[in-house]
Specification:
Layout (H helix, E strand, L loop, with lengths): L48 H6 L1
């Protein structure tokens, strides 16, 4: 899916997604604080919720 400036997309609950961009851009991801950023998978990039909140 390709989005332009000002566009938005709602990803269905449970659907895997990985936002990427060809050039630097700003995005906003809105999800409950209890959601792990890698979902149910544990990979090298997985951070705990506490670590995500620390930045």
């Amino acid at each position: 899916m390709t989005l332009s400036a000002g566009d938005f997309h709602v990803v269905s609950k449970g659907k895997m997604h990985n936002p990427v961009a060809d050039t630097e851009c700003w995005i906003v991801l809105i999800e409950p604080v209890t959601i792990r950023h890698t979902g149910e998978l544990t990979v090298a990039k997985t951070k705990s919720v506490a670590a995500q909140l620390r930045g």
